[in-house]
Amino acid sequence: MRWQTRIRTLVALAAVVVLPGTIAEAAPGDTGVVAEHSAVAANGKLSVCGLRLCNSSGRPVQLRGMSTHGLQWYAHCVTDGSLDALAGDWRADVLRLSMYIQEGGYETDPRRFTDLVDRFIEEATQRGMYAIVDWHMLSPGDPHYNLSLARTFFTEIVGRHRGKDNVLYEIANEPSGVSWSRIRSYAEEIIPVIRAQDRDAVVLVGTRGWSSLGVSEGGDEREIIANPVRAENIMYTFHFYAASHRDYYLDTLARAAQRLPVFVTEFGTQTYTGDGGNDFAMAGRYLDLMAQQKISWVNWNFSDDHRSGAVFQEGTCSAGGPWTGPGPLKPAGVWVREHIRAG
Ligand code: IDC
After folding, report:
1. Contact between 304 and 68 (Cβ < 8 Å)
2. pLDDT confidence bin for 15, thresholds 50/70/90
3. Contacts of 20 (CB under 8 A, 6+ apart)
4. Looking at the predicted structure, is the pLDDT value of residue 140 above 60?
5. Which pLDDT value is given to residue 34?
6. Which residues line ligand 1 (CB under 6 A)?
């Protein structure tokens, strides 16, 4: 089923051309008005039901969409036009907002990055897309390193958006070099911070070995099954790059999905560098599994950097588009757009 259309223009018209007694006036600041056939209009507030993500009627749903590149570098790829294309032409259900902490990210200017994420949440909301707020810690790999910053950020961002149905919180992009129990203890520190502001937002928890469910550091999903995070309404993340992460990783995802709620918040059709040749055959095997199991996924990334995994051709963002159709896309972009649109 597809539910994606844009009625932003209609919404704007409805707010302006109010025929007395026929159309209720939109409440001031009511940016929660969503496109009639959008993912959010069709599904409402999500929650974790057993091993799956379910819509407000309790039916399992699979979200498909795109992650931004690091917002400190590629916020200029996230424009009115590119988001219209993502929601309308690509028919994406979800936009992941990749806010790095290091490498020139949040730690350098918390105010600026909080406001940027805030604005992009509103933009996703207006287009009827879910938004994943990605606390993009990467190096250092211990999530505790940024704990006090995370407390400040999540307190504010969740507080500002607690009335919305469409925001999910990813609390640690890719932990590495630390045990699962250390990641779990971080999750048990930060989830209560989120829940204090919004009791029932879905929270996504990174896993050991760059969110490989442990595999990239010699473990696997059993360490999580044995010691799950003590919180409700959470999912565990799995990231893969198809040219690097082959059958062993695919088998792990297939097994884990029988025991744990999993959300693939990042994948690429190339190697883990986000670059190199595309392996569409391997990526297709993952997509088949995720379709069968209704595992939601997000592709890396919605930018025009020089790497093969950035969907737009170099120069697209600074030129301000064009954004729609396959024309401006690299091969990975053409492929992933087709798979998001395919329904
Ligand atoms: C890459 C970016 C690149 C940046 C690098 C380090 O594409 O521009 O220099 O990060 O910040 C991940 C990470 C994601 C990576 C991506 C591709 O979550 O930040 O982006 N990747 O390497 N995990 C596996 C692959």
Report:
1. no
2. very low
3. none
4. yes
5. 56
6. 103, 138, 173-174, 210, 239, 241, 266, 272-274, 300, 305, 307
189 is catalytic: no
How many domains are there within the chain? 1
Residue 27 lies in a domain: no
* CATH number for position 335: 3.20.20.80
Which pLDDT band holds residue 2 (cuts at 50, 70, 90)?
A: low
What's the pLDDT at 343?
Answer: 72
Q: pTM above the 0.90 mark?
A: yes
* pLDDT tops 50 at residue 19: no
- % of the chain surpassing 70 pLDDT: 90
Reported as a pLDDT band with limits 50, 70 and 90, residue 3 is low
266 is catalytic: yes
Residue 42 within a domain = no
| 99 in any annotated domain | yes
d(CA 92, CA 107): 30
Rounded to the nearest angstrom, the distance between the alpha carbon of 55 and the centre of ligand 1 is: 31
